[in-house]
Amino acid sequence: MTPRNLLRIALSTLLAATALAQEVSTDRPVDPLAMGKMWTFENPPLAYLEKEYGFKPDQKWLDSLRLSALRVGTREQQWCSAAFVSPQGLIMTNHHCVREQIERAQQDQDWVNDGFAAKALDDEVKLAMGVQQLIAQQDVTAKVNDGIGETDDDVTITRKREENTKKTIAAAVAAQPQQLHQVVTLYQGAVYQLYSYKVYDDVRLVLAPNLQIAYFGGDPDNFTYPRYDVDFTFVRAYENDKPADTSANYFRFRADGPKDGELVFVPGNPGSTNRLLTTAQLEYQRDVEYPMIIEEFGRALAITRPFATKENAGLMVTVLEWENSYKAISGQLDGLRDRRLFALKAVHEQQFRAAVQQRPELQRQYGAAWDKLAAAAQQKRVLQPRTKFHQAAFSTAIERGVAICRAVDDSLPDEERASARDAALGMRVSALNMITRPLLIDHFRRARKWLPAGDPFLKALFGDDDDPAAVVKRLDKSKLNREATVKRLLDGGKDAVAESDDPALVAARALVPLQRDNEAQEQALDGVWKAQGTLLGRALFEVYGSKVSPDATMTLRFSDGVVQGYPYNGTLAPWATSFYGLYARHTEFGGVFPFDLPEPWLKAESRIDLTKKVDFVCTNDIVGGNSGSSVVDKELNVVGLIFDGNIESLPNDYYFTQDRPRAVSVHANALLVALQQVYDGQRIADELLAGRRPAGEPKPGGDGKPGPGKDEAPRK
To answer: What is the rounded CA–CA span in Å between residue 694 and residue 701?
Structure first.
């Protein structure tokens, strides 16, 4: 390379660095919206909404928004959002939110691929899921922090909070046993709220479209826009074997959908964000945690995709979930690697830290948190590969070997040894197949990459061999699939296990102490992570109060935004797409998967007004968990259904912007077209449209005025 070129490159780099520094270095106060717009209902940003939009909702409006919105899942696990959209318990959510439940219910049918439409109430099919309605909130911060002393270490603080949380929930269950109760951590522990839910456990499938229209464009279009996806499903809540009476709280349906530039709200349950993490914590995610996850998903998808066919629906659903996770985490990692965005985050942190330092009392309480978290993040860089790869993975032989080792470990309590013995006797060793074999080989290959050369588990597995496939062949010869061998080892005790040369047991002997050590280190670091994160959350609350929204917690929030297109790829993305574009995309790709329209949509083309809208974008703050959230106007009419974010929104995980990030929704037009023109869904369309607010009926309150409307359930 010539000196002239070297000089040019050096000058270019210098100018770029200078421009970046000038762009992100500012003395202006930190922007509270960098923490996002996932507002809690106990601290609604009324002054901000009035200043930003000239709209100030009253309590009636907030209660109606809260009580019409739902969380999807079971009592043990939640994963999506939804909403009541009729007085008879009709619920709208995404197809991908209930795809697995539809598959379980379809028996010898193929409702996932072919769609389903119940012709009458009696034809609606029960699903293995429920929905939850947030009916009460209570601040329990003092209860959760009860008994914590200033000299308590991080592990002790975490343990005391966990014990207090269990007591708080137990008391709530004793008082209201029919409800679901959850202690929610806000601002990483600066605030704790007890959320209580009414649970609808009887939920039945009403109408679901073909998988291919709900997944149109597949993985290539996932997290992109413009988009042509009609991802919806209707289910219904039942009580006492009858449709639930939800006339007090439901969103009316606005058939014409939103307009460009219109103010809209998204009530839903965002899953998790990392906006309060420090730059040191984010650098750990950028350099270690996320690259390991991306590598694992990428390899797993390459191995399993050839087997994910329509005939193997269960695996296909799994692959779809993996593809979604792979692309989502890839987008977040790209955001962490974005120099400008990460520099903005660093400036945000510097300004926040400076605000704490300027107040001596805050500095005394919270000032050391950043350094302690940086030290913990450095330790996690070393620990994370160990916790990831010190595992049996897809080897049930090693897994059984671990149980045997624990069963004869006299350092463990008797109950733990007895439990391990029962597990070893009850466990079955599965033969590796065309999928699990390459997955296990890949796991060992990646373990060699991420773990140090002298790692005891690697030495036990590989010995002098470098070939992961050869390791798996040796594991195939393990006799731990024989009940007599397992019983002989257990009866022989510690000596018999120590003397065995069974390859799976040799690996397990190395694994057990490593797992125990990893678990202890992980517990200690998690204690630091939580306790110091709580201090930062308190500091944030002390400095900015409720002007900032807390990180997502898979609990109910609402977000404000406007319907708006954005610049992308050297051109402009329109605020909405149309059916012209949907059918053009099918044609342009030759009707080849994943751009192939299902037969009902091809047959319906001549009946559809192609100017009708399919999808639209808005600036609302969403993340995974918001899937299935209704988009409503300021009069609480449904105008769309959230199903995705664009690729530009993924870095919002750690620093919120709204110049190009967008939430992507199914337009109300598309929902009615699907019901009326494609599927046998006129009865559902009639139910939606019958729920519209009659002329002259008062609307929910806004602008500070009472909104009588229908009688709402009282706020508790």
So the answer is: 16
